[in-house]
Specification:
The complex is a heterodimer of chains A (155) and B (269).
Chain A: E1 6-11, E2 23-31, E3 38-44, E4 61-67, E5 100-105, H1 107-115, E6 120-128, H2 137-141, E7 148-154
Antiparallel strand pairs in A: 1-6, 2-5, 2-7, 3-4, 3-6
Chain B: E1 17-19, H1 27-41, H2 49-56, H3 71-87, H4 105-108, H5 112-115, E2 118-119, E3 122-123, H6 133-139, H7 160-167, H8 172-190, H9 205-223, H10 231-234, E4 237-238, E5 241-244, E6 256-258
Parallel strand pairs in B: 1-6
Antiparallel strand pairs in B: 2-3, 4-5
Helix pairs in contact in B: 3-9, 8-9
Classes of the chains: A mainly beta (155), B mainly alpha (269).
């Protein structure tokens, strides 16, 4: 099962902000984990990438990460709606479906792009859902939700 | 009904329990582990498997903490209390870790001790577990009554180099977030019910996987003795357990540690 891929442009460091880096992370914010577990395969400059695209540098594959999902809602209507704290005195733990953050280390792939003097990169995130007892195709279709992505490099 | 009163023996000066690599367990240790799991699976009340596995996921409420700053502390508490429940059946038992970075794991995947269908002519309790009837009911008509696995290619498990780089990170939240990412990857790699938060803990390999995660946190703590969990998290409770984040920081205060090798000899007394 696979979901809908998401592609976007990302600026690379330029000029003096472009020193040799020891580590580069792509950080994905706002990942949904209310549905089935899924893998996110990340490709550079391959906007047509899909679950069958080879996981090789030649195909632009930069790496992957997984998100352990809650598998759906098992309560009554509204059970899995995110609830904010009702006041500053609300000592309950945060809602379990607060979106997740994941960082993918892409040091080598970003280094290759920067050495080629590229200014931007097209990032394509391809969700892949493996079959499992509770995973349903309709859940898998829209499994990937991303709020923001940031590139951080470290000298 | 008979109510037995147990003497409070051996509660003072108790030595630490040492959790070990599952690949290094000697035959009696492995037998004790299997005996404890079998006994736990044979008890239907809140001393047994169905209760403890259900705390993590279904039946509701799901107590586990994922994708939150309490991920490591909550699961440390969970392992601690579950291990105590196993000790009620086998006092010497400790939870072993599955080193999914090892060369052997990158050849065979799930340890054979957790995948062989039988052990000593008996069903191997570490190969899978039954799923709580109420959990099945809440999970819906397709819910299984027993765990399953569909492992990926062993070469795709996290590597020792990745964990070595992770242990160098000096900020707890950065470390925890990346460790949870590797953790998620192994859950999805095992596949089947291990890939689903509601049912994952019904698989005994869940505990070997999480003991590895807890061990990596312990190794990180030893490497970064002045770094740690942010102060604003320390007072948080970890329901349903009667313990706070602060009380999970020192594993020796919880009575255990990790060893790649350990032996003990009783001299006198």
């Amino acid at each position: 099962m696979s979901g809908v891929a998401i592609s976007f442009e990302l600026e690379l460091p330029t000029g003096t902000a472009r020193p040799e880096h020891a580590r580069a992370d792509l950080t994905f914010y706002g990942l949904d984990h209310s549905g089935p577990s899924y893998e996110v395969r990340v490709f550079f400059n391959h906007p047509d990438a899909d679950p069958d695209t080879p996981l090789t540098p030649g195909a632009g594959f930069a790496g992957s990460f997984a998100v352990f999902g809650h598998g759906g809602c098992f309560g009554e209507e509204g059970h899995c709606d995110l609830r904010p704290p009702v006041s500053i005195f609300d000592r309950r733990l945060p809602h379990q479906l607060v979106p997740a953050v994941r960082a993918l280390t892409v040091t080598g792939a970003i280094g290759d792009l920067m050495r080629s003097d590229t200014q931007t990169v097209t990032v394509t995130a391809v969700p892949v859902v493996r079959s499992s007892p509770l995973a349903r195709a309709d859940q898998a279709a829209d499994v990937l939700v991303i709020d923001q992505v940031a590139l951080h490099t470290y000298e | 009904m008979t109510i037995a009163t147990m003497p409070a023996q051996q509660l003072t000066q108790a030595p630490l329990s040492y959790r070990k690599n599952v690949a290094m367990l000697r035959a009696p240790q492995l037998a004790a582990l299997r005996s404890a799991f079998t006994a736990s699976m044979g008890v239907g009340d809140d001393r047994g498997w169905q209760y403890w596995a259900g705390i993590h996921g279904l039946p509701l409420p799901m107590y586990c903490q994922h994708h939150t700053p309490l991920f490591l502390a909550w699961h440390r508490a969970y392992l601690y209390y579950f291990e105590l429940s196993l000790k009620d059946f086998e006092p010497t038992v400790t939870l072993p870790w599955w080193d999914w970075t090892s060369a052997w794991s990158h050849q065979v995947g799930v340890p054979l001790r957790y995948s062989d269908a039988e052990a000593d002519g008996q069903p191997n309790p570490l190969a899978g577990g039954p799923i709580n009837a109420l959990a099945q009911q809440q999970a819906g008509p397709d819910a299984p009554d027993h765990t399953s696995r569909e492992p990926g290619s062993p070469a795709n498990l996290p590597t020792a180099d990745q964990i070595s780089e992770l242990l160098d990170r000096g900020d707890f939240l950065d470390f925890q977030q990346q460790l949870e990412s590797y953790h998620d990857g192994v859950h999805v790699w095992v596949g089947g019910t291990m890939a689903e938060i509601p049912l994952a803990a019904y698989d005994p390999v869940f505990f070997a996987h999480h003991t590895m995660i807890d061990r990596i946190w312990r190794l990180w703590q030893l490497r970064h003795p002045t770094a740690g969990v942010p102060d604003d998290l320390l007072g948080e409770a970890l329901p349903p357990f009667n313990i706070t984040v602060a009380q999970t920081i020192d594993v020796t205060a919880l009575g255990y540690d990790y060893a790649s090798f350990s032996s003990r000899t009783t001299i006198g007394g």
